[in-house]
Amino acid sequence: MRRILLIEPSYRNKYPPLGLMKISAYHKMLGDKVVFCKGANLSLRKEKWDRIYITSLFTFYWNTTIKTIKYYLKSVNDSKNIFVGGPMATIMAEEILAQKGLEEITILRGLLNKPNMLDENEHIVDNMVPDYSIIDTATNNYLSYNYPVSDAFLIHSTRGCIRKCEFCAVPKIEPKFLRYADIKPNIKDVIKQFGDRRNLMIMDNNILASPDLEQIIQDIIDCGFGINNNDYKYIKDSKERTKKRYVDFNQGLDARLLYEHPEKMEFLSRVAVKPLRIAFDHADDEFVEIYTRCMWLAAENKIKDVSNYILFNFDDEPNDLYRRLEINALLNAQFENGGYCTRIWSFPMRFSPIYGEEAKGRKFLGKKWVRKQLRGIQCILNATHGVVGPKLAFFKKAFGENIDEFNKLIWMPEKYIIYRNENIQNGNADCWNNLFYQLDAKLLADFQRIIGDNVFVGKHSDNSIISKLLSHYTD
After folding, report:
1. What parts of the chain have a pLDDT lower than 70?
2. Residues in a beta bridge with 115
């Protein structure tokens, strides 16, 4: 019997580590002892383990992940028994191995979807039924972290993606597109081993690319997640109770495929989807047309909750972000006025590279952005808790009545953005506004050049208006 330690770094994340859950199932099947912990644990570190598996997530968690690997490095007799996998490990394997002390660790690249990958046997780890027991804080004494999504089946009905988007790691992690995997046996086995789960998280990267989509939808319905058969029964206080259960296509849906094949939206409407996730990554006229049509398809098919990630700081500019958010806000107003039940919730998502030194944090600066603009967006999102709701008035208040007001807002001192009402009431915002509107085009360019790096201490100007403006950032 081997002693196996599974570690997820201490970053905050919504979903449990599915890869580690499958590795746990694999080792328990072989009779090994398995312990799972999130982050650093001194007592576990002091023990000796036959193997330690450490997962990774996004590349901007580089520092946290590397620190975690080094923390447990001496908890094995040979560093080759430290196995590191997951997205960051696959994408930046050579960079990890170049770190001092990590030259001999084992990197698991991509999926564990072949025999003989962990040991010399025919078992395929990626096909294992995930071990949900390791994420149960009631039974795992080493886990104090509660995953926001824990009462759900985590499954794949396809693998890979037909796209090759340059900002996406999927082509490297899952290079081959698998068009269909039957989810029913997996769900049945999870229920048998660990009990029923309320919701269904489909982790596919591009489910709409599958020619077998209608069969996948039928599988989902057969498992109890149809729009008309989604009751989840459970016991509380010795009484049977009922909740609605939901399907979440977590990685988002391809708007282009919905535009080209509108019948696929009707397929989706057959299941209890909440929310329907569709990315709004581009602001060019062609994609705006595609995206807008998809939103109307959702409304016409009575899908209530729509959520989208709005990528910024990539090849866009600030005006593009405002435009996309405004389109969603206006669509929401049209849906409400037209009696449709659909509402769109927007989540602006700042781009970070997945390769090179710039991937090791969140400091990447898009070529059409400056740091003060990015910080201004972050301040707005801090105030809105990262989400832009469906109300047009909410959007206008948060991001400005128009693009000109938006472009002024993101240059304001951050305390005036985050604590806007307070600084309107005490007159600080009006004072700053009055000075800002006195700047002609040349002075505005000078002012933005001075504070564009989001550093204010030690900055000065010979112009009296700019000098007074600067005082608002340091007082």
Report:
1. none
2. none
pLDDT tens profile 330-353: 999 999 999 999 999 999 999 988
Residue 219 shares a structural domain with residue 254? yes
Q: Tell whether 94 and 69 lie within a shared domain.
A: yes
The pTM assigned to this predicted structure is 0.91
Distance CA 219, CA 252 (A): 19
Domains identified in the chain, total number? 3
User: Are 364 and 461 contained in the same domain?
Assistant: no
Render pLDDT for 258-280 as a digit per residue (tens, 0 to 9): 999 999 999 999 999 999 999 89
Indicate whether 180 and 220 sit together in one domain. yes
Which residue(s) pair with 242 in the sheet? 233
State the DSSP string of 290-321. Answer: HHHHHHHHHHHTT--EEEEEEEESSS--HHHH
The neighbouring-strand residues paired with 51 are 4
Of 121, 142, 169, which closes a domain?
Answer: 121
Asked if 226 contacts 253 with a C-beta cutoff of 8 angstroms, the reply is no
Dihedral over alpha carbons 75, 79, 82, 86 (to 10 degrees): 140
Range of the domain at 424: 417-474
The first and second tokens of residue 40, run together, are 């650093």
Rg (CA), the chain: 25
- Per-residue confidence (pLDDT) for residue 172, from 0 to 100: 85
Last residue within a domain, chosen from 64, 92, 121: 121
